[in-house]
């Protein structure tokens, strides 16, 4: 039996989408919501997979230090990197791909969570990024292969 818990973390960040071809090529920001779905092999004496506060400390700690109130930029976006490099202080986090909600969920699942949860006995199996109240993307680990699977959804009528 798999026991899954979820912790929601809120943060704000700026970005732009390289080659978007529309308004999202401009610098803009979002109040993001990140839902971390975490599983563990065992429960502790209290009955927890991991204490919610420990989970929060680990993942929010990383987000607060790296993404919150920062700009997420594609490594190929030289123009944005140069521009933001002229601003002091400024927090810039360079991603190996465009900072879409899909790729942010993927990065948090594949790169950040294994490090942040190391030694906790828990592992992230799904990360959902809400970019607006109406749109989210999520990355999840296939339980058999362990590969990441992507999913995104936008509310009807938007
Ligand atoms: N599949 C994805 N599509 C888009 C993403 C994304 O991450 N994944 N991101 C964007 C932009 O970041 C944009 O800011 C959000 O787009 P959109 O939903 O069009 O923005 P609004 O909700 O503000 O729409 P309005 O029409 O202005 O109300 C684009 N696409």
TrEMBL record:
Question: In terms of domain of life, where is this protein from?
Answer: Bacteria
Q: Does the keyword Plastid apply?
A: no
Q: In which pathway does it act?
A: Purine metabolism; 7-cyano-7-deazaguanine biosynthesis
EC code(s) of this entry:
4.1.2.50
Q: Does the keyword Zinc apply?
A: yes
Q: Which GO terms describe its molecular function?
A: 6-carboxytetrahydropterin synthase activity
Catalyzed reaction equations = 7,8-dihydroneopterin 3'-triphosphate + H2O = 6-carboxy-5,6,7,8-tetrahydropterin + triphosphate + acetaldehyde + 2 H(+)
Tell me which UniProt keywords the record has, alphabetically: Lyase, Metal-binding, Zinc
| EC main group | lyase
- By its UniProt entry, which Pfam families does this protein fall under? PTPS (PF01242)
What cofactors does this protein use? Zn(2+)
What InterPro entries does the record point to?
6-PTP_synth/QueD (IPR007115), 6-PTP_synth/QueD_sf (IPR038418)
Q: Which family is this protein grouped under?
A: Belongs to the PTPS family. QueD subfamily.
Please state what the protein is called. Answer: 6-carboxy-5,6,7,8-tetrahydropterin synthase
């Amino acid at each position: 039996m798999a026991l899954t818990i979820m912790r929601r973390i809120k943060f704000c960040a700026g970005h732009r989408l390289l080659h978007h071809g529309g308004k999202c090529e401009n610098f803009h920001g979002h109040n993001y919501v990140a839902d971390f779905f975490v599983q563990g092999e065992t429960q502790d004496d209290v009955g927890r997979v991991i204490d919610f506060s420990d989970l929060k400390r680990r993942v929010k700690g990383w987000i607060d230090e790296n993404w919150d109130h920062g700009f997420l930029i594609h490594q190929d976006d030289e123009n944005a990197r140069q521009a933001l490099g002229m601003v002091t202080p400024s927090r810039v986090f360079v991603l190996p791909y465009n900072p879409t909600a899909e790729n942010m969920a993927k990065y948090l699942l594949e790169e950040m969570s294994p490090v942040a949860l190391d030694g906790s006995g828990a592992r992230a199996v799904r990360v959902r990024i809400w970019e607006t109240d109406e749109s989210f993307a999520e990355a999840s680990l296939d339980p058999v292969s362990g590969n990441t699977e992507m999913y995104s959804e936008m509310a009807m009528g938007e």
